[in-house]
Amino acid sequence: MNVTEAVRQRISTRAFLDTPIPRDQLADLLETAQRSPSGGNLQPWKLIAVTGAAKDEIISIAHRVLAADPMGPVPGDRPVYPDLNAIAPVYNERRKRVGEMMYEKVGIPREDRAGRIQWFANNYRFFGAPVGLFLIIDTRMGHGQWAHMGMYMQTIALLAEERGWGTCMQECWARLRNELHAHFGLDEHHMLYAGMALGVPDIEQPVNDLYAERAPQAEVVEFKGW
After folding, report:
1. Residue among 163, 226, 167 at smallest CA distance from 194
2. pTM for the structure as a whole
3. What is the pLDDT of residues 144-184, one digit of tens each?
4. What is the CATH number of the domain that holds 48?
5. Taken in order 58, 180, 182, 60, is the CA torsion positive or negative?
6. Going by C-beta distance under 8 Å and a sequence separation of 6 or more, which residues neighbour residue 222?
7. In angstroms, what CA-CA distances link 208 with 12, 101, 131, 189, 203?
8. Percentages (nearest 5) of helix, strand, coil residues in the chain
9. N or C, which terminus of the chain has less Cβ within 10 Å?
């Protein structure tokens, strides 16, 4: 598989097999991911990988904290999304569209809010993936370093694709920033950036046929000087 193939076939995997991921194979992937670019070579990322009982502890924390409302707001001043009513409508349209596509795949109609909430809660079980990754950043980093964290996550996702694994980047774990900060024993300057599910995709599940639409190139790219 080349890089182009990995980019084109990567999806957000939302159903996994329970096939274990050996620690040495994950460590090999993460060693390669250390080559991710970062301005000034700061390498602003830290990562906590969980599986087995350690993963189950996280799931239990999520169940306890989010039982009442798994789709509620993110605490603090680092929201997952901007105020979508304050920026160009196209961004909210894209968000709504991919949601419609996903719920269609899993057979949950728009009016079934309870069903949608129940489905969304699968995020906090890593969609059945055997491995959960948590990305940690120093809150004193600048906006550039937040972008570099995203590059690191993308690198992990593409390396996973090469190995026949799937991933789902999960900003929703920001809902548990406070609880996981305490659980992981982070110091005052570090915070949870995002989570990621990783494992072997369950290709029999319709939700893994979802390829989110992308804007046409002409909508986002300008060529000058040609």
Report:
1. 167
2. 0.94
3. 999 999 999 999 999 999 999 999 999 999 999 999 999 99
4. 3.40.109.10
5. negative
6. none
7. 8, 11, 18, 37, 6
8. 50, 15, 35
9. C
